[in-house]
């Protein structure tokens, strides 16, 4: 839906479907960062428990025990051995949430600090680690529960445009403290 709507004119939007597979995530996310060198990557995942559009503040490195779609689970139960326990997005999600909520869209937007220790959280952490925090993750509820594809597309469009605005006004605060 977002691909149909697009983003502002100065943004190149690349949309990829990431399989629910730990090993694919570990290979694909760094490859996409290398290929595109993006200003920001925004991951979107469906959560059967979500009733709002949820902005995730951080990704977690350990605690991955669930089997993926290939019936695989990392033996270490972590994303990056020796990596920090938690990495925060450099995007101020509270500000993004307030701004998007003020737009009066017919979609509720909330904040979370726990993306669930499954492939969404694993993908988010992997991307945050790769990008020194220049990533975001948005959980959406399943289609029709309660929002339509059009509602979610418009909400994602507004969220990403606000994230880009927040990022552009915080560039001087960014530093990376780990090596890839």
Question: In words, what does this structure look like?
Answer:
GO terms for molecular function: pyroglutamyl-peptidase activity. This protein is of the alpha/beta class. It has one domain: Aminopeptidase. Helix content is 34%, strand content 14%. It is built from five helices and six strands. Strands 1-6-2-5 form a four-stranded mixed beta sheet, with helices on both faces. Strands 3-4 form a two-stranded antiparallel ribbon. Helix 2 runs parallel beside helix 4 and helix 3 packs across helix 5. The longest helix is centred in the last third of the chain and has 20 residues.
Write the layout of secondary structure elements.
Layout: H1 2-5, H2 22-36, E1 41-46, E2 53-56, E3 58-60, E4 86-88, H3 93-102, E5 109-112, H4 119-131, E6 135-140, H5 149-168
Parallel strand pairs: 1-6, 2-5
Antiparallel strand pairs: 2-6, 3-4
State the secondary-structure class.
Answer: alpha/beta
- The overall strand count is 6
Task: Please identify, by name, the CATH architecture.
Answer: 3-Layer(aba) Sandwich
Number of helices in the DSSP assignment = 5
């Amino acid at each position: 839906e977002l691909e149909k709507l697009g983003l502002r004119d100065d943004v190149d939007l690349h949309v990829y479907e990431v399989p629910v597979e730990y090993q694919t995530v570990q290979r694909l996310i760094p490859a996409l960062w290398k290929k595109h060198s993006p200003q920001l990557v925004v991951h979107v995942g469906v959560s059967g428990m979500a009733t709002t559009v949820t902005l995730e503040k951080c990704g977690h490195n350990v605690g991955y025990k669930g089997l993926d779609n290939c019936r695989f689970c990392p033996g270490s139960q972590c994303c990056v051995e020796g990596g920090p326990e938690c990495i925060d997005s450099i995007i101020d999600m509270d500000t993004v949430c307030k701004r998007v909520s003020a737009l009066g869209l017919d979609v509720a937007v909330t904040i979370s600090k726990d993306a669930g220790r499954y492939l969404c959280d694993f993908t988010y952490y992997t991307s945050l680690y790769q990008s020194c925090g220049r990533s975001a993750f948005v959980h959406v509820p399943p289609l029709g529960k309660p929002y339509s594809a059009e509602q979610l597309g418009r909400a994602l469009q507004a969220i990403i445009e606000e994230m880009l605005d927040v990022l552009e006004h915080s560039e001087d605060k960014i530093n990376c403290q780990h090596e890839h």
